[in-house]
């Protein structure tokens, strides 16, 4: 499962994580290299020693307050999978 960094303080109104980085690079720039697809499960984290949570990747319009441009990669968080470290 791919791990992606996100800012949990910058989620959309519907808990969509739209700021996604893979090894410090925006997901949009490395999506082809990583061969990600809509519906893929990923692990999201912000601080490596805090917690992580699983999410489902999607591509499209994101709820506010995500900045334009839309469409973009985002992840729908599944809070039931949260693991405190």
Portion of residues in beta strands equals over 45%
Low-confidence stretches: none
* Average residue pLDDT: 93
- How far is the N terminus from the C terminus? 18 Å
The structural class is mainly beta
Number of strands: 7
What is the chain-wise order of helices and strands?
Answer: EEEEHEEE
Rg calc: 12 Å
Main beta-sheet annotation: 7 strands, mixed
Descriptive overview:
This protein is mainly beta. The protein is built from 1 helix and 7 strands. A 7-stranded mixed sheet has the order 2-7-6-5-1-3-4. The longest helix is centred in the middle third of the chain and has 8 residues. It is globular.
Gist of the model:
The chain has one helix spanning 27-34, and strands at residues 2-6, 16-17, 20-22, 25-26, 41-45, 51-60, 72-84.
């Amino acid at each position: 499962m791919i791990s992606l960094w996100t800012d949990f303080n910058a989620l959309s109104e519907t808990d969509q994580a739209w700021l996604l980085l893979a090894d410090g690079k925006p997901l949009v720039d490395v999506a082809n290299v990583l061969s990600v697809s809509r519906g893929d499960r990923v692990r999201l984290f912000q601080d490596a020693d805090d917690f992580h949570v699983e999410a489902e990747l999607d591509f499209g319009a994101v709820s506010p307050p995500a900045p334009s441009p839309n469409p973009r990669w985002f992840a729908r968080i599944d809070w039931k999978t949260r693991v405190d470290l």
